């Protein structure tokens, strides 16, 4: 194979990198030709690089050459890579060659250069961050990365043209640039002269066609407008013109909220958090926050809604915790119930009731269901071998025993599961068992227990599922879990435990036992409702009129979708059963799991000390809601989403719309005369609003949030294209146009404030106060976009909604929550936390400083590129700063040259 | 011919019975295909290659590394040069180059008919009405 290249031809970069990366370089003969030399016989115009194959064929496309090298190394083509390469050829290249020509040949700078490529760069950045993959086509670097990196390198190697806010692009670019094949290609082509090395080639090229005409939009391409029919437009505009009139009267607030015959009655529960722990962000997004969004949405639809939750307080873990803290179980529950309630209050969770399970109602209802099951023959009795600690005089429930794992020999296996090999353990099989409390060795004793006869109830359950599941909104993971349980066949489930802290078992011979969580935790929803209203049965024994939505993480599915329905069906008392079981996947923290014991991750009570408002937390958690697959919380991503989506997109649009009304029209909404473009926009907003409704009706919370951001992007674009700030200074017709644009924009802002309400209630209320949105319009969301701020409406004072999150702020939070925080005293302020950072963190930082110091010294010794050195030095200084903060020392002043 | 219509035509000739619906994106009306089991696909040649795989006719994407690269090269040529031409002069050069390339070939990869031939044919279709000199090229592509 022979590769023809030319001095300064940008295509050589990806080609050489790909050759190096795919080890194709060895067999490659390289010939350098002049920029105007025609290598390919059948092409009229000169083209380099060109690869002449041994067969005599020519590859004259840069991407095709790179692709060929990758194919030779065994790589297989895929859709995503094809898409990136097609995008590179059709979208990126035209933009990029314009930018490079302006920069290298015409000597332009700044925005003149960046302007043409900004949209393409944003597209890459968003694709990377949306898929949260480090590389364009997946977890590993591949063809698409090499081709795009090679195309972009000449421009982006100058930090001035790598926009800081595009964090994902930034780290992708740095990662690739640091790899050996890429580095070598860059050295060969740019010869350490930077982008100017391209000059000999580029100045022989014709000037790229004017770029402005091609892409005016600054939008991600996924959100281009759909095509609309005339009827759709007319219908949307007719609805818009009706305005406030079409709003129904607000439904009066009821107390207590009770089902109303003939209405849509929505009962919403979120999984009861276990009382002995402070919930982390994953717990919060998994149940309470997700359910809250749906509850708020349901109320905006004027559905008759009751949202309840509470702490699950009985069980072994509470007893353990009580022992640890030297309190009684009741005191522990009181203490932690208050902590939970405070956290959810701070997160603005709109419970109608936040109750608890340790109440007389819980005992009454649980015992009633049990009696009914017993009478109907659905309870079995059996003897179980269990460990008993003679010293503590009690049977040891799973978590009260530790020992050596019988499978892998791990020394600290728990009574139910080994943390090392993950296998489920029967506590009596543990080797060298120890009572977790007194460390003495327990003995095996048999104990009588009660079992729920699930096999006997299986048929009823299947019948019920057969009626419920089709057409319902059960999430796929919930359906899957239930299906696999049924496939394996149900087994009798033990529903009693040898504990004191629980609901007593009302049966002779079982006076010293209590019900196990498997049986009574889900009954908590009923008892919590019973403590709210004595008419609780109108919700819970009313399956015809009540729609029950239950929110939880996927580990809770068997309790809600299987065990409780079996109890309820067996009790034969017309209980309301779950119509829609909404289960999330897991949320990880950065690259790992939340861990209370290791102090990794953000826990509910700490979120409030970060200085970041609750609504921002809500927004980001909902934006990454583990819907359909696990997702991860990332500080960098949070900063990015706050700064790009909230600040630059949503906040910017709403603020501008309001400011134009204040500044240009004295605070009164101007007259609007819709042109065909405006009518089209009204229809597009209506369409997106309807999409939002469709998604939320199906409880696809994360996706519906995208609709809000899409509308605001349309809004920004609309303002940008129509430039009301210029037209306001023009002729009468121009001023009228400015009025229409401002009026329509501020009405879109009003709509957004309502759509945003389930997600960010405080921000929503702030916008509505700023716009003085009339009350019914604040509390009702119809499926049509209405003109709720008619001409002449006076708005209030407009001010910015969001604050920028800064890198150093986020970095210090990342450090703080990255482990070792368990040692930090509770509820510290940011500064204190940093000052009292754990010793381990200090050690980690010292190591990093030392490592970074070496990198800088090496670079200087190699006389590396100035920018590169500067970047590494900046990193070093930043690390030193963090170290100083962590050690609680004042900042060191730079010494450097003075000393030498 | 709009990209969506072109893809529908391609589906038919590939024997795919269940027709997909395409939306169009942006000023250049780039086709977008919403697939059932994944993210949407954007771009004419990307979708076309996807359809070929769907129809189990991978051979239309080339069988050796060399053929595969050549197919993709001409697919790129189609969407950049053929679709992106700016004036008559461009078209003239393009047809001349193609004619010269095809002088000793039956198809774009040599002897095997591929997706590149199909899409280039579709792309050039609109020119042949007005340009007679191109007839010989088309003749070969249609009848051989």
Q: How many distinct beta strands of chain A? A: 20
Q: Summarize model confidence as the mean pLDDT of chain B.
A: 83
Helices of chain A, by number, come to 32
Summed over residues and divided by their number, the pLDDT of chain A gives a mean of: 86
Low-confidence stretches of chain B: none
Please tell me about this protein's structure.
Chain A: Its EC number is 6.1.1.10. Chain A: It catalyses: tRNA(Met) + L-methionine + ATP = L-methionyl-tRNA(Met) + AMP + diphosphate. Chain A: Residues 841-897 form the WHEP-TRS domain. Chain A: Residues 74-210 form the GST C-terminal domain. The complex is a heterodimer of chains A (900) and B (144). With 900 residues, chain A is of the alpha/beta class. Chain A contains 32 helices and 20 strands. The radius of gyration of chain A is 32 Å and the shape is globular. The two termini of chain A are 54 Å apart. Chain B has 144 residues and is mainly alpha-helical. Chain B contains 6 helices and 3 strands, in the order H-E-E-E-H-H-H-H-H. Chain B has helices at residues 3-14, 44-54, 65-84, 88-102, 115-128, 135-143, and strands at 22-25, 30-33, 41-42. Chain B has a 3-stranded antiparallel sheet with strand order 1-2-3, covered by helices on one side. The chains are: A alpha/beta (900), B mainly alpha (144). At the A-B interface, helix 2 and helix 3 of A face strand 1, strand 3, helix 2, helix 3 and helix 4 of B.
SSE map:
The complex is a heterodimer of chains A (900) and B (144).
Chain A: E1 2-5, H1 12-21, E2 29-32, E3 50-52, E4 58-59, H2 62-72, H3 79-105, H4 111-131, H5 143-156, H6 167-177, H7 180-190, H8 199-202, H9 230-242, E5 265-270, H10 281-300, E6 304-311, H11 316-325, H12 329-346, E7 353-356, H13 360-375, E8 379-389, E9 394-395, E10 401-404, E11 413-414, E12 431-435, E13 443-452, H14 454-468, H15 476-488, E14 493-494, E15 496-497, E16 514-515, H16 517-520, H17 524-532, H18 537-540, E17 546-553, H19 557-571, E18 580-584, E19 587-589, H20 604-607, H21 614-623, E20 631-633, H22 635-665, H23 676-697, H24 701-722, H25 724-727, H26 732-756, H27 761-771, H28 775-779, H29 807-816, H30 830-835, H31 839-861, H32 866-887
Parallel strand pairs in A: 1-2, 5-6, 5-17, 6-7, 17-18, 19-20
Antiparallel strand pairs in A: 1-3, 3-4, 8-9, 8-13, 10-11, 10-12, 13-14, 15-16
Chain B: H1 3-14, E1 22-25, E2 30-33, E3 41-42, H2 44-54, H3 65-84, H4 88-102, H5 115-128, H6 135-143
Antiparallel strand pairs in B: 1-2, 2-3
Keywords (chain B): Acetylation, Coiled coil, Cytoplasm, Membrane, Nucleus, Protein biosynthesis, Transmembrane, Transmembrane helix
Transmembrane segments (chain B): 119-143
Function (chain B): Positive modulator of ATM response to DNA damage.
